[in-house]
Design a protein that fits this description.
Helices cover 44% and strands 0% of the residues. Helix 3 runs antiparallel to helix 4 and helix 4 crosses helix 8. The longest helix is centred in the N-terminal third of the chain and has 15 residues.
Amino acid sequence: MADDLKINPGANAHEPLGRAEFSSFAESTKEDWQKISAATGVFQKGHANRILTHLKMLEGDCGGFPVSRLEHSLQTATMAHRAGKDEEYVVCALLHDIGDTLGVFNHPDIAAAILKPFVSPENHWMVENHGIFQGYYFFHHLGLDRDMREQYRGHPNFEYTAQFCHLYDQPAFRTDFDTMPLEAFVPMVERVMAKPKQSIYLRKDNSGAW
């Protein structure tokens, strides 16, 4: 932050340098973007909490399934954690269905977009495509092709994603499961989402996101 920038007397904790004053990007200045960057830094600190708040929206919504969508997410993450998977994988398991409320017809895309900056390409691909891979277990009951995943046969992450669905996703609908509470996963989510690995907003000097 430039030394000659001073705290705006009218600023609040969310906008420590106040607000920019442009009406279009074309007329914005470096000082404007320093103000926005300062506010963005504050906003980014609450990112993990906002994700978890949205995940909680799955609580109580069963959609005809034996357990709620949140319970299914927690069971999937619990199974992965108890199997010794690393935190990034467990967080992917926890959030894989977070898009259910907004992406009724493409929920994996929502989860994949949220996770992409923070996870490996392998885990991102798994989350992005789990909808097709889980279909192996039930698509035929809906008049769909259960072998839809075969279009990806030979892909480096085929077996990786198939195993996720087989071991953790498709069996996570038990009504008698000893599920870990959401609170147990909060520190994991915070650590995984503490710093992006890839983003168009990352500085080339590796000094962080803008």
